[in-house]
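Hi,

Apologies if this is the wrong queue. I'm a grad student, and the batch job for Glycosyltransferase from Papaver nudicaule produced an output file that my downstream script rejects. I'm not sure whether the problem is my script or the file. Here is the sequence I used:
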Amino acid sequence: MASKFSHHHQLHVFIFPITAQGHMIPMISIAKLFAARGVKATIISTPLNAITLAKTIDQDRLSGLDINIETIPFPAVEVGLPEGTESVNQITSLDMMPKFFLAVDMLQQPFEKLLEEYRPDFVVADMFLPWTTEAAAKFGIPRLIFHGTNMFSQCVAGSLRIHKPFGSITNDKESFLVPDLPDKIEMTKSQVPEYITGGTESLFSVVMGKVRESEQKSYGVLVNSFYELEPAYADHYKNAMGIRAWQIGPLSLRSNDGTLDKAAKEKESSIEEHNVLKWLDSKKPNSVIYVSFGSLSKLSNGQLTEIATGLEESGSSFIWVVRKSMTDEDEKYLPEGFEERMEGKGLIIREWAPQVLILDHPAVGGFMTHCGWNSILEGITAGVPMITWPMFAEQFYNEKFVTQVLKIGNQVGADEWKDWVETAEVSVKKEKICKAVTQLMSEDGEENKEMRKRVAELSVKAKRAVNEDGSSYVQFSALIEELQMSSKTSTSQ
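Support response: The file is valid. Your script probably expects a header line. Output copied below for reference.
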């Protein structure tokens, strides 16, 4: 691959993710993607995260990819966070949030030192590092943004922010139409993030304001999606928002099998992986539902009990990833004798699961998800229909995309946006969970067959997009050519 560009000066990119699992995983894939095309990639990280990262990229370096890591100390103690706090995943209470963002802002100065020292040709930085646009501009370096989500959700967020269609609505559960979009999208006020509906200036609304401002001044946006998945929104985004964007996904097809997640839990993961796949091998095609709510969702013990009971009553085989937000001795959320009764029928995995491998397995026929974009795209790529259970961030928009635009999933009935640090109380009862699972996993019904057919077709398109001459491959090539040209122009001046 590298030879196409090798007669030029070798481009150098800084990749700077926010330290959150769901953002780091796709951004490391972006680094690998650039390196596979002969671009030198330097990942900017913090000391503890760099240790985990090093394990995942050592293999790539051995295979000849030019990837390195530079570390910036994270000033946790200076802002009043516990020592060793370097990741969003370690935040346990709302009062830690402002401190975390303050620490993130303090990374600007050391980042500028690295820019001055290395003078990369361009920077790809996470949306939550808005000051990188200004920092890079000081050295005449273009900055590209990575949002971690799709075009659709950005179009919805833009429309809600500009038009405020919920303005006159007094009942939080009354639905309204999101204006000015290619499709008829309906939402309720309770599903819209508080930083959009709230009258007061919250920390997050201030942060998002800075994100939008930096977006307007940036070189453009890299998107983990592919044109065929959301063509109307890719066009709408460029026209309505006036921001350049390149769709370069699905990034999970580009060398990522969850290795970043896995590296942190190396000891148990290979045994886990083997056992899970062996267990799945014993199941019929499309007979297992996979249940996972991502790395940040916090569910109360009561809600976990409802999930357990709903799964049991559905009669379906399942794999359920449970992330503990409590101490071991507090693990009373599973009904009495549940694990014994589910022996052979259900598999409970604590903390880490090889998600991409599970979704790709022929036995898996459904995915209950929190609607984080990485998870949805992995589900689509694997051709698995979904049960949507959004909780925070842009997850309610993603649910609309899955159920109202793509029509490849059913809602479980979650209807209230929560701040992600808060533990979600019981928002969905076992009856709804049981009904959603039974409905999705049923082999009968025209609607189900149509849904499976649609998601299978999207899976084929996803894989085609990243192949040579596929839409994501072509867009990525065009971006590299353009950066090569602008680098050539600036060096010749």
